[in-house]
């Protein structure tokens, strides 16, 4: 993947008097990884493909929705150049100036601004599971394309609906108990595949959210990082094997996912206060 990052300014897409643009694009391999000086909301309308964001590669399909803040490098790619593998994406682009006008005029929550302007490569990833966002994106594109009299306030009204809808999706994640529910598939996968190499990208794609957001959500929900949680899970399984099986310590370490016996010894001692041999002897008294 070519990580050359082009800068796409908003001036390429709109006139200064109304800094907003809505497009419907068939994605190709010609556009390089890029950043922009505007906020972008993407909606995958047709097909399947990949969305490269920073160092991440996410598989995308119809109904996937992204918020791409200023400075976040990304690009879409279809599965292949073949016409049968087309990837169609709606893009809603707007400036921070327009956002601030809408925030001020309608007293929108401060968290909404943070969600849209968060930097450091952050982004938001949603699924249009209730099919509420596609009609909005289609109407935004239609209004922008036709540009009938009064289209600017109509576009602003539709953009407000879109932003509030995304904000509500974001708030759903933070309801009491919602985090555990959202991570349920991740917990189940880790419990089943704890002895295997586990990719953060794969875990994030199960929800789906970004890797960075998964890490924050997991830490907030469990009080542990994903690495800590996986280590604790593996050590717990090793304790069970030390108590109940005749396997050697080396075999147990390998069975729970550690090929480095020295590392396993150090981690086990750190987590339990005993060496594996001491723990087995103590457990069998």
From TrEMBL:
InterPro entries: AraC-bd (IPR003313), Homeodomain-like_sf (IPR009057), HTH-like (IPR037923), HTH_AraC (IPR018060), HTH_AraC-typ_CS (IPR018062), RmlC-like_jellyroll (IPR014710), Tscrpt_reg_AraC-type_HTH (IPR020449). It holds the Pfam family AraC_binding. The keyword Transcription applies. The keyword Protein biosynthesis does not apply. Keywords: DNA-binding, Transcription, Transcription regulation. Residues 184-282 form the HTH araC/xylS-type domain. PANTHER family: ARAC-FAMILY TRANSCRIPTIONAL REGULATOR, HTH-TYPE TRANSCRIPTIONAL ACTIVATOR RHAS. This is AraC-like DNA-binding protein. It comes from Paenibacillus eucommiae.
């Amino acid at each position: 993947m070519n990580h050359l990052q082009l800068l796409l300014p908003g001036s390429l897409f709109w006139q200064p008097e109304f800094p907003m643009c809505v497009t419907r694009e068939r994605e190709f391999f010609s556009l390089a990884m890029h950043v922009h000086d505007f906020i972008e909301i993407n909606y995958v309308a047709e097909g399947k493909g990949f969305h490269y964001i920073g160092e991440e590669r996410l598989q995308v399909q119809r109904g996937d929705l992204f918020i791409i803040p200023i400075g976040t490098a990304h690009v879409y790619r279809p599965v292949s150049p073949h016409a049968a593998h087309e990837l169609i994406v709606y893009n809603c682009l707007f400036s921070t100036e327009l956002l601030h006008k809408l925030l001020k005029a309608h007293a929108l929550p401060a968290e909404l601004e943070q969600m849209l302007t968060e930097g450091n490569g952050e982004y938001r990833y949603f699924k249009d599971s209730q099919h509420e966002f596609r009609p909005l994106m289609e109407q935004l594109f239609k209004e922008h394309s036709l540009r009938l009299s009064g289209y600017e306030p109509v576009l602003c009204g539709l953009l407000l609906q879109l932003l509030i809808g995304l904000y509500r999706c974001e708030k759903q994640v933070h309801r009491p108990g919602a985090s555990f529910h959202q991570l349920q598939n991740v917990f189940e996968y880790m419990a089943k595949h704890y002895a295997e190499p586990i990719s953060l990208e794969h875990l994030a794609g199960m929800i789906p959210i970004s890797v960075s957001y998964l890490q924050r959500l997991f830490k907030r929900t469990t009080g542990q990082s994903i690495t800590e949680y996986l280590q604790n899970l593996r050590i717990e399984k090793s304790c069970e094997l030390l108590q109940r099986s005749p396997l050697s310590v080396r075999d147990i370490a390998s069975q729970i996912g550690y090929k480095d016996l020295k590392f396993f010894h150090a981690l086990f001692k750190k987590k339990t206060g005993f060496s594996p041999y001491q723990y087995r002897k103590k457990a069998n008294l």
